[in-house]
């Protein structure tokens, strides 16, 4: 009688260990990539929100500056002061940097009408006057500078 060699159809222990090792390396690399993608997504989202807030701030600032055409804009101690001189009242609008926030304050005479927080999470706020031009330099928390001539 002939003896037939029967081949086993199973994996050996070494093959199983190598397979588990290689798949675990692939899964770990995949998880690392997913975490880095998520971290970059969060950073891009925060920067996008910051850009939108800055655009909204400049839109509000343009509205405040050009609300009435008979206003005087001056720089006073690293802040912008807008004087509206009309026949009935004397309104002063001041835009200042306070506690990482840009604040607009409306006063009439000696009483405060309103205080508005215009922009949050600001590292530095600087008002520079050269000749007759007033420049507003804002540095956000990411270190990006925004320069605007008023």
Describe the 3D structure.
The chain has 150 residues and is α+β, with helices and mostly antiparallel strands. It has one domain (13-149). Helix content is 35%, strand content 39%. The chain has one helix and eight strands. The strands form two sheets. Strands 1-2-3-4-5 form a five-stranded antiparallel sheet, covered by helices on one side. The longest helix is centred in the N-terminal third of the chain and has 53 residues, at 13-65. The protein starts with 12 loop residues before the first helix and ends with a strand. The model has no long low-confidence stretch (mean pLDDT 83).
Draw up the topology in text.
Blueprint: H1 13-65, E1 71-75, E2 80-85, E3 90-98, E4 101-108, E5 111-119, E6 122-130, E7 133-140, E8 145-149
Antiparallel strand pairs: 1-2, 2-3, 3-4, 4-5, 6-7, 7-8
Organism: Clostridium carnis
Transmembrane segments: 12-38
Keywords: Membrane, Transmembrane, Transmembrane helix
Question: Uncertain runs with pLDDT below 50, 5 residues or more?
Answer: none
Biggest sheet: strand arrangement: 1-2-3-4-5
What is the domain total for the residues? 1
Radius of gyration: 31 Å
């Amino acid at each position: 009688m002939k003896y037939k060699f029967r081949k086993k159809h199973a994996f050996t222990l070494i093959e199983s260990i190598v397979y588990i090792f290689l798949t675990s390396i692939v899964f770990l690399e995949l998880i690392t990539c997913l975490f880095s993608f998520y971290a970059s997504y969060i950073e891009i989202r925060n920067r996008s929100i910051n850009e939108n807030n800055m655009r909204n701030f400049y839109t509000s600032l343009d509205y405040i500056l050009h609300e009435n055409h008979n206003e005087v804009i001056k720089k006073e101690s690293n802040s912008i002061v807008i004087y509206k001189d009309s026949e009935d009242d004397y309104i002063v609008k001041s835009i200042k940097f306070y506690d990482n926030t840009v604040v607009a304050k409306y006063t009439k005479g000696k009483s405060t009408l309103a205080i508005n927080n215009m922009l949050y999470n600001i590292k530095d706020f600087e008002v520079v006057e050269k000749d007759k031009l007033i420049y507003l330099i804002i540095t956000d928390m990411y270190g990006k500078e925004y320069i605007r001539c008023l």
